Fold:
Amino acid sequence: MIKANWTSVSGFLLMGFSDDPKFQIIHAVLFLGIYLLALSGNLLIISIITLDHHLHSPMYYFLKYLSFLDLCFISVTVPQSITNSLTNNGYISLGQCIFQVFFFIALASSEVAILTVMSYDRYVAICQPLHYEVIMNPSACRRAVVAVWVAGGISGLLHTAINFSMPLCGDRVIHQFFCDIPQMLKLSCSYNFISEIAIAAFTTSTAFVCLISIVFSYTCIFSTVLKIPSAEGRSKVFSTCLPHMFVVTFFLSAAGFEFLRPPSDFPSTMDLLFSIFYTVIPPTLNPIIYSLRNEAMKTALRKVLSKEGFAQRTIYLKAIFKL
Structure:
């Protein structure tokens, strides 16, 4: 890929990981494998929770939406990057870039919001078990999911409007494999930090509120769990909550490092590395973490894959088609 003068072009040039065609093929193959793994894992979780009525509870209801968000989140950036590497062409149009920025921010914000809702669900289940069914009733769960989507949409609109309202100067070259806001801010003509501060303040404040809520929920949860006399009961709770804590910590720390660190005029390997940490790895690891550490999910998976489960699904599908 040859970096040309992109001043007069309406689109952008995504530099990706390397100009070497051999490395581009390696990158495309690796990303394709990761994408297929994330796709199959999240679709499997969605299918299992949908088909097994024992998992029709608020906890798995939110987990299903987390898997759907992960599936959409990784689909916004990775397929485009694979295509660019295979065609040895990093060009992305202005419309595609706007599409990426909006859905990337909207889905990332929605993911943080759903993780916050999931922590509250665990808090109510463990710390207020007698009121759980009243507080986390089906209507409240649906409202929570709607609020997650609305919050994500507003965040995506604000970031997209601010980012693309700034005049751009010079070569429209983005040193990333997708339209990443921190990299795009470097293309601004004024670069007086006003827009950047506005974006950073909004992102930081919302993420901070979610983080404080999650920390408070799990502080209460762990203090309650330590009072449980049964070692088996403590183990069951920890097996459910610790993976969630790992997902939240990994996602927010990687994204926070990339968005809040001081900007640099020189692209580095760290930019690409941390972008992978918050764009590719969480959607791929989430299905593995939640399925391998959760006995109910493993039991449901074995049931779905069994002959009896296949027969039940066949009857279920026949009944649907008759309707």
User: Anything to note?
Assistant: Confidence is low (pLDDT under 50) at residues 4-8.
